[in-house]
Amino acid sequence: MDLKINGANHQVDVPDDMPLLWVIRDVLGMTGTKFGCGIAQCGACTVHVDGIAIRSCQLPVGTVGGRAITTIEGIGDTSAGAKIQKAWIELEVIQCGYCQPGQIMSAAALLAANPQPDDDAIDAAMAGNLCRCGTYVRIREGIKHAARA
Ligand code: FES
Ligand code: FES
Fold first, then answer.
1. How far apart are CA 52 and CA 37, in angstroms?
2. Which domain holds residue 121?
3. Which of 13, 67, 115, 136 is least surrounded by Cβ atoms within 10 Å, i.e. has the fewest?
4. Is-above-0.85 flag for pTM?
């Protein structure tokens, strides 16, 4: 099957029902996207498919052939992603870091769709991304910081 990830084409020989997360990490070796719960509950595995933030741990790879997949390795090449990453560094949003690729992917999708999100929009967009270090307040500030950039 042909996959387009971060603008590059990849050919993979995998079962159609293998979760996209497995293909990204274990077959293609792109380990920025994290495994957390495996049941679409934590957001650690968030990637973009055609610009939409999606949980890759429950997404069969057979459903995304020919679609534009973006991972944390490529999000900095987008306008919204670059702003989010810069804000994350400037505000030192990250603690342990494990959840943060997923947080950044959800935040970048929000900012691309809504360049000036209010608190309610931020909370709604980020509700599916859990952080055991409790960085939620800095994540919200980081998104606002990026929106002002
Ligand atoms: S690992 Fe996919 S949502 Fe938790
Ligand atoms: S920064 Fe540690 S889980 Fe979020």
1. 20
2. 76-148
3. 13
4. yes
